[in-house]
Amino acid sequence: MKPILFSLSLTLASLPALAQQTAPAKPAPAPMTFFVTSVGIGDGANLGGLAGADAHCQKLAAAAGSQFTNWKAYLSISAEAGKPAVNARDRIGNGPWHNAKGTAIARDQAHLHGDTVELARVGNLITRNNALNEKGEQINGVGAQPNQHDVLTGTQPDGRAYTDGADHTCKNWTSNSEGTAQVGHHDRNGGGISWNSTHPSRGCSQANLVGTGGAGLFYCFVPVQ
């Protein structure tokens, strides 16, 4: 009986090793294709236009280790001087988009913007817990000091530019003085629940952006097709 017991003990001892060898590997998290900028450009809402904002997204993403090279700022601009308006939603592809932790914040454009009553009721996952910066950190919201939940967008809730002739983009992101900027709340708290269109800023200067609960931050997306 001793040889049988010895063989059985060897078999039992090898089970943990066999389990480790056969356990399926955990899938790698989806790469980051969305974040809130950890810092603004620092000149109020003068971002250097869309090109300057895109470059800021790219710089922050690269510093965080992103391999994507086509980052776009989620910003709308108004029609001017014979040039057409640009809609923020048209700059970011079709989705899905994931934050720095691999969490899907929206599966497609309709989900992101609540294009149907049902989708609007469910909502996307751009919330305080998931609207992370490029480093995977939460952005200060209501209750934190300083509150920085205002995010520059210049857009209507459907992700499109305004057509009423008023300035909602601080002169298409070139002004740090005149004008106002439409902002959303990344935490969906404190005077509105829209992530992309809650209220206008007090003005376009850095001080005015800070004064209404912001820091000149904006959303960045990879145009996922």
How would you describe what is shown here?
This protein has about 220 residues and is α+β, with helices and mostly antiparallel strands. Helix content is about 25%, strand content about 10%. The chain has helices at about 1-20, 50-65, 110-115, 115-120, 170-175, 205-210, and strands at about 35, 70-75, 95-100, 105, 150, 180-185, 200, 215-220. The strands form 2 sheets. Strands 1, 2, 5, 6, 7 and 8 form a 6-stranded mixed beta sheet that branches. A two-stranded antiparallel sheet has the order 3-4. Mean pLDDT is about 90; it is low at about 1-15.
In short:
With 225 residues, the protein is an alpha+beta fold. 25% of the residues lie in helices and 12% in strands.
Q: What average pLDDT do the residues reach?
A: 90
Assembly state: single chain
SS strand fraction: 5-15%
Distance between the termini: 66 Å
**Unreliable runs:** 1-13
Count all strands and give the number: 8
